[in-house]
Amino acid sequence: MVEYLRIGIIVNTFGLKGEVKIKSFSDFDDERYKKNNEVLVYFNNEYIPFKVNTYRVHKGMNIVSFVDYDHINLIEKYKGCDVFVDRSKIKPLKKGEFYRFELVGLDVYNQEGNYLGKSIKVEDMGHCTNIRIEKEDKKTFLVPNIKEFIKDVNLEDKTMVIKVIEGLI
To answer: In this structure, are residues 163 and 143 in contact, taking their beta carbons and an 8 Å threshold?
Structure first.
């Protein structure tokens, strides 16, 4: 069965030549939107393949155009649609590197082995990313996604160990 990974959402059109603004939920946007790469737009309960024509970043947004969609009238109906890639086409990362989606849903522990909660989201804060952890009481806190705080990630065990400092939780 094909598994899809959500990489963004089309938030608006951009100009009259069929470009769209895509808010990213992905790593490596420049790789995802390489010319001739295929992405899938979820529209009317189906995944529609689109071939990337152009990609650039403008004011923090991905601006993408697709082959055969060269006018606003052809692309406007896809505003608000999620953008996906086939998960099997994502290349493996180096040891110790993780895609954002892999960091969600992990049980989180401190360095002493005490359970803290579950990672529920990776949030982009502009200059860095943070991992949102939900405690058992449903309150949340953020942990910077840097090696000083993220001490271990074990995808097989679905666990993460973080360094807790005063004021973090």
So the answer is: no
Q: What CA–CA distances, in Å, run from 131 to 32, 67, 75, 91?
A: 22, 36, 34, 22
Closest by CA to 145, choosing from 92, 108, 94, 91, is 108
What are the pLDDT tens digits along the chain (169 aa)? 778 989 999 999 999 999 999 998 887 898 899 999 999 999 999 999 999 999 999 988 899 999 999 999 999 999 999 999 998 888 888 888 888 889 999 999 999 999 999 999 988 776 778 999 999 999 999 999 999 999 999 999 999 999 999 888 8
Name the phi and psi angles at 72, rounded to 5.
Answer: -55, -35
Query: What is the architecture, at CATH level 2, of domain 100-162?
Result: Roll (2.30)
Helix (H, G, I), strand (E, B) or coil at 61: strand
CA distance 105 to 125: 20
User: What is the CATH code of the structural domain delimited by 4-89?
Assistant: 2.40.30.60
Q: How many other C-beta atoms can be found within 10 angstroms of the C-beta atom of residue 54?
A: 14
Residues of the chain with CATH 2.40.30.60: 4-89
